[in-house]
Design a protein that fits this description.
Helix content: 40-55%
Strand content: 5-15%
Radius of gyration: 29 Å
Number of strands: 11
Structural class: alpha/beta
């Protein structure tokens, strides 16, 4: 039944999620040791009702955005767990922000305890259900019949993958290919069909899925397969290694009204990027307010030392190389840029980056500001403008970017930040090659949790001036 009623199954799962999340949320609200309240709805009023409803209903909405309700028949457990953890982080942030805005008299840790408890219960229920389904499939229940287009090495590899995962519940009905195409030796005993017979096969057999695993040279001849599957309403899966073994994972997108495959090394979730942007705006606003006295004092000292400009504007490369004017408190003499070429021999950094520990252009006040990274404070304004983020790879100058290798340009594939892994790992004590490696590590493994860890390590790095000069 589940095979033919995927929508019904998703609806049942969504109902189960609402039931479980509501039970956990209400249970914790009525637990005084957790909520800090003896009568939460009496003490919190309408605001408490809004927070409670959000805590109950936000999970299925977030799950829908993260495609948790999609089929996980062939998905890896790690990928499912990643989506569930992301949902938990998003929901904890939403619930915490709502509790703060509505000023409900809940304990400060309640939103996070509630989200963690709900996440654990929903995850346990899900993995228990997935385990039961995989067990059932191993015994021949809840199976799907597939046809594989191709009969060469790629098709044989797909067959081996299916045989190695009986929990997927996939049964190979046969292979569809051209007449003159060489057949992989491991498939000599398999059922082979001709491509032109595809409409008849879909009419005579129970086919739940068609997997295209033919060589690239055969793409021009699989038109009948696509048309037949479309007409019969049978899902077709195209393995993207058809275009090469080293291409990144694609994502379905649209160019106007036309569907497209978008290839990128990393596909960051748009919902989480939106949360990151909200955190940037709130964090930068609070930082500018809190550090405004420091800014005023620093500005006076800079002006008093040489009567020069207070701020230093420099063109930097932002997201995908887009130029912007980055703000800093001026820490060098007024003609620092003009003197940079004369100091090239003092550069202590490998690669295209210029760094000098005892740069003669740095002023006395500038040395103090640099030591504690106070010269970076104006960049919170760049964050508010959307040119930078609180956390991200440091923005390079165009003169450095022109010397980048093509692989090093991937540093620009994410919005630059005020702090980053390099910043909290020693800064100028780290060579350029290791710097790039740390930035790419951040991009490839980015998540809200990683941003939180980098921010937590930034304050000690600033206070102890680790690697600063």
């Amino acid at each position: 039944m589940l095979r033919n009623n995927g929508t019904v199954t998703s609806s049942l799962l969504m109902s189960l999620d609402v039931l479980l999340s509501t039970s956990v949320c209400l249970g914790l609200l009525l637990w005084p040791e957790v909520s800090g309240l003896t009568d939460p709805f009496g003490q919190g009023g309408i605001a408490m009702l809004v927070v409670a409803l959000t805590g109950c209903l936000v999970w299925p909405i977030t799950f829908g955005q993260l495609d948790v309700y999609g089929s996980v028949r062939t998905a890896q457990s790690g990928e499912v767990a990643r989506r569930l953890i992301l949902a938990g982080l998003v929901n904890a942030t939403i619930l915490g922000a709502l509790a703060f805005v509505t000023n409900v008299p809940l304990s400060r840790g309640f939103p996070f305890v509630c989200a963690a408890a709900q996440g654990l219960v929903l995850s346990a229920a899900r993995f228990s259900l997935y385990g039961m389904l995989r067990t059932a499939r191993r015994f021949g229940r809840n199976t799907r019949n597939v046809l594989i287009v191709g009969s060469g090495p790629r098709a044989a590899q797909v067959k081996r993958n299916i045989d190695a995962h009986p929990g997927w519940g996939l049964k190979v009905l046969g292979f569809v290919d051209d007449v003159d195409t060489p057949v992989d030796p491991s498939l000599f005993a398999a059922k082979l069909f001709r491509i032109e017979h595809m409409p008849v096969l879909l009419g005579d057999l129970v086919v739940d899925q068609v997997i295209v695993a033919c060589p690239r040279s055969m793409l021009g001849s699989i038109g009948p397969v696509l048309r037949s599957c479309s007409s019969a309403g049978v899902p077709l899966t195209l393995l993207t290694d058809l275009f090469g073994d080293f291409l990144p994972t694609p994502r379905l997108g649209h160019l106007g009204s036309r569907p497209s495959l978008e290839f990128a090394m990393v596909h960051h979730n748009s919902v989480l990027l939106g949360v990151k942007r909200v955190i940037d705006i709130v964090g930068a606003s609070l930082a500018l307010l809190a550090l405004s006295p420091v800014m005023l004092a620093a500005a006076f000292m800079i002006w008093r030392e040489d009567r020069g400009s207070i701020f230093f504007k420099q063109t930097r490369c932002g997201l995908n190389g887009r130029p912007f004017q980055m703000l800093k408190l001026r820490t060098m003499c007024v003609d620092a840029e003009a003197r940079k070429a004369d100091l090239a021999e003092l550069n202590e950094m490998d690669g295209p980056v210029f760094k000098c520990k005892r740069d003669p252009r740095i002023t006395r006040v500038g040395g103090f500001l640099r030591r504690f990274s106070l010269d970076e404070v104006p960049q919170f304004w760049n964050v508010l403008l959307g040119e930078m983020s609180l956390v991200g790879p440091r923005p390079p100058v165009p003169e450095e970017v022109v010397h980048y290798e093509i692989s090093e340009r991937r540093r620009l594939s994410m919005r630059p930040g005020i702090t980053c892994i390099w910043q909290v790992s020693g800064r100028n004590e780290i060579g350029f090659e290791e710097w790039v490696k740390l930035d790419l590590q951040y991009i490839d493994s980015w998540g809200l949790g990683l941003d939180a860890r980098v921010l937590a390590r930034t304050l000690p790095a600033v206070l102890f001036a680790k690697g600063a000069h």
